[in-house]
Write a structure and sequence with these properties.
The chain is α+β, with helices and mostly antiparallel strands. It has helices spanning about 5-25, 30-50, 60-80, 80-85, 90-115, 220-225, 280-285, 295-315, 320-345, 350-370, and strands at about 125-130, 145-150, 150-160, 160-165, 175-180, 190-195, 200-210, 210-215, 230-235, 250-255, 260-265, 270-275. The chain folds into 3 domains: about 1-80, no CATH class; about 85-115 and about 275-375; about 125-275, Jelly Rolls.
Amino acid sequence: MCGELWLTDGISNVVLFAPFGISLSVFGIRWWRVAIISFAFSLFIEYMQSIGLPPARSAAWSDVVANTLGGLGGVIVVQLRRWAIAPTSRLATRLALLWSLGAIVVLALTSKALGFRDDARDVGVYKRSSYDHTPGMGWFDGVVNSVSVDSYRTTQRGTGPVIVETAVEPRTVTMTAVLRGREEGNALVPIVFVHRIGDMSAVTFIGERADAAELMVSRTAWDWGLAMPSLTLPGVFANRTVTDARALRLSAIAAPDHLELHARSAYFDGDRTMPLTPTLGWTMIQTLIKRDSTFAIVAHLGWLISLVFPIGWFGAQSGVRWKTMLGVVVGIVALSASAMPRIFGVAPIGLGEWSTMAVLVLCAAIVARQRRPAVSL
């Protein structure tokens, strides 16, 4: 997709360099030296990228700044560890309230980012685009026979993607493409690409990446410089060649609260659906782990831990009325998160996620109540 994920890249670099700063700080290195070392190490990395090592990477001064800030962030984490491990009752109360507010803000921003831009409409008005290719993306070597985008129909009868433009961004897009052949490369290549007039960032598109079909969308998150979760259906093109004459039907739905992708052919029949919930924030701040990848469960669990575990930890240390305090902050977060689908149009948080977060809060509270006061790092 066209555009720059500047905020995603910045957050990723800060988070990746934080453990580096933590390690240096634990060994007693002063903060200003950590900053210098982080800056020098980052500068070396960016220089190697500028000369093509590793391939397909680009160097940027913004990465140097973000990496240096990540190193300093690690120093701050080490310095604040005692407050987090053994806070006073008053401080624990404040931290529980502050973390709850932070969790609500993160869930609300995620919901807003997953949603449509303010000028989006219920129905789009489509026509063939004046562009015959998508800037920065490859050319589809297969042959697209026909394409439909909602009620709009068109034919291609040749290689290359079908590019459709719309005057307004639709809230729900239904796409279907019937094609022959495939793209032989491993890069993401669009097959059906929908964009707004005057803006070549995709509203949504179906593409091929290696043997998989992929559905991508760009919404408010894209304007903020954040990544949007994509939906991948593996194996769709595994048994095809560029000249394969067998028809393959790809269909997709990009709705406010979910993404759907279906593939039908003589040798493949599969589909996949992804609900867009307020807990998908981790998919927007990094691009290494996708929502439907092997490590998605671990990444998702880690995100839930970061959201609610500290609430249970601090809430259980907030004084003699800690049960009341913990119930209040958990209730506020739960009510706020439950309201976000109605406010922003995203999918509601599932029962499994609610159960997981409840267990995490309970475990944090139990550990906090049974911990020894002398615990230290």
